[in-house]
Description:
The chain is of the alpha+beta class.
Amino acid sequence: MKQMKLNNLDLELFYEKLENGLEVYVIPKKGCKNTYVTYSTKYGSRDYEFVPIGSKSMKTTPGGVAHFLEHKMFEQEDGTDPFVFFSERGADANANTNYRKTTYLYSGTKFFEENLKYLLQYVESPFFTDENVEKEKGIIEQEIMMYEDSPFTKAYEGVLYNLFVEDPMKYPIIGTVKSVRSITKQDLYDCYHTFYHPSNMFVVITGKVDPYEAVKIIQGVESKRSILSSGKVEKKRIKEPQKVAKPYEETHMNVVIPKLTIGYKIPLFPFQKMSRRKVLHYLMMLFGIKLGPVSLFQEKVKQEGLMTTDFSFDYIDTEDYFVILLIAETNSPDQLAQLIKQELSNLEISEADLERKKKTIISSFLFMSDNIYQLNEKAMNNIIKYDTVNCDDYGEITSLNIGEYQKMIPNIQLENHSIYVVLPNEGA
Length: 428
């Protein structure tokens, strides 16, 4: 087992790769009474075209299969309900799907071995029938309709749909009513056997845990599995153009105050000589300094009555692009959008602002080390993006400097953006 220090956090990372390819990452936390365990596959809603195990041809699956599959894993052939199982042992369980991964999780203070074994066993026991697949469709359709009534979801998904041309990230994670209705039992099994192979999965454990005991338990479960051999999953290569699909759109919903959403699709290829993580840090710092909650810009627009709350920020990165979404409530969406454009016409930031932002990030980073859920999330995100856990975030952040950022400025392209506005219903 490999053992690595997490720089400046007084924490250690233990890593083991099992014979079947499953990777295990353990970060013990002294003095912690709780244990947080996540079991993830590198499979999300974006992965809808791939070559299934045992096949040589590309398969296209309906939108929403990854999320649908997550739902169906909680239906076991023996009738056991995983939520009830964990609840009876004092643990909270859940699962989630995003564009790149699907995660099954639990947290609790007792029954570590029993809970860990069961997490592995139920995720490794698919049970799909024509009947239970059809039954699930109605449940997910209701969930879709609920999201369609949410102005925030409408704005978020609307701007992503208009930003991307080819990338499946433009489509809702949950799918559409039409795509969900077309999902079959065979779709689920093809996706499961291809993406839920141990060589495409990983376990992250944080909190109260003995790493050697945890790995021994996992090895015991995995040694009893009978699985198909698998190499690297072959997915369709996405070729996303720099242009956006649609630069502007507006819709009407049952809202009192309009919602303005702006999405920027920033190409990353001009920065190939720099560390990808560093580039993302600089870009996030740029938007935080220019438009963040303590920026002069937000202070000004709030004083002028253009905004009553802070921006909601979301950052997404694909293989070729860094995407930032800004969402704000404003009675003057056109005016606010124009002011944002003016603010970002000058990408210079001061050294003092950069150093101040670095201190804020480091402070949050150090605070994260006391939160086993954030530690786990950070590790998962690293594994999905970089296939490893970065053990020196502190050193990477402290090395950021104004000279390096200034060299980036000529290559930061903000012209590829899209605006999505949710307006009150006419006559409201």
